[in-house]
Amino acid sequence: MPVITFAHHKGGTGKTTACLNIGGFLKKAGKRVLIVDCDPQANATSGLGVKPGTSAYDIYDVFMSGTEGFETVSLRSAILKTDAGPDLCPASLDLAGAEPYLYEREDHVSVLNNALKTVSRRYDSILVDTPPSMGQFLINGLVAADRTVVTMDTGPFALQGIESLKTIFSDIGENTGKEVTPGMAIVTRGKVLLEEMTPAGEVMDGLKRLLGISGKKNLERMRFLEIMEAMNQEFAQVYAIPYDPMIPEAQKRGIPISECTAESPAATEYAQIAKVIGGWK
């Protein structure tokens, strides 16, 4: 049973989207899947149709369990069945209040890892969504991980993000003794940039280059190719997810894209990634 953590210290990279949609296709393939939301923003919770703060227990209670003055709550007690498919350990804004307490605990980097061990035999895959920040919840997610998946956007600072992640993972390894070596990277909203241009579009693009006026789409395409080249040098497996209007539609409905369609551009890619992850041990 692998624990797979989705990580990036920057927001807007499609981390939660990847976690939910891969989890949805794993479930559709007959796998027993648990998604653990470790982000106080609770987007993974909302993305599976659960309103944050409405469950009797959530991941906040699990992190606070064992802290003096707080109730002992097992991870199993916080897990919900969802209509969307995967089981869920939800999050809420309360989680932000747990971080100061974790710094006072000797086991602060392994709280999640110890909790996941108690339910490991119940699942084929456990997916952990972490917050876009460098703190205790990201560290706990990485320490608990058997595999780490990094998500990237195609913005102008994406390449700097790769170097920042390498530094962060190295620092975590030095301070916790847990080596973090991501085996997969997912570039979101990028593959559409590789679509073939029409003959007229190629003529206009060439004319703009001759005049020293690079079109926006051409610049984005070049940046995407540069990002993909850099990531292929750093990660064993790299996937690109195209823009797909079915993604926000699924999010609005509180379900993974697997429950909407299996044939849209992004769904096809996420299904392929889920097939690869489903074979991980």
What does this structure look like?
There is one protein chain. This protein is 43% helix and 11% strand. By secondary structure, it is α/β, with parallel strands linked by helices. It starts with a strand and ends with a helix. The model is unreliable at 192-197 (pLDDT under 50).
List descriptors.
single chain; 281 residues; alpha/beta; Rossmann fold; seven-stranded parallel sheet
Query: What's the CATH class label?
Result: Alpha Beta
Low-confidence stretches: 192-197
SS element count, helices: 12
Reported for the largest beta sheet, the result is: 7 strands, parallel
Number of domains: 1
What is the structure about, briefly put?
The chain is built from twelve helices and seven strands. It has helices at about 15-30, 45, 60-65, 75-80, 100, 110-115, 135-145, 160-175, 200-210, 215-235, 245-255, 265-280; strands at about 5, 35, 85-90, 125-130, 145-150, 185, 235-240. Helix 1 (about 15-30) crosses helix 12 (about 265-280) and helix 6 (about 110-115) packs across helix 7.
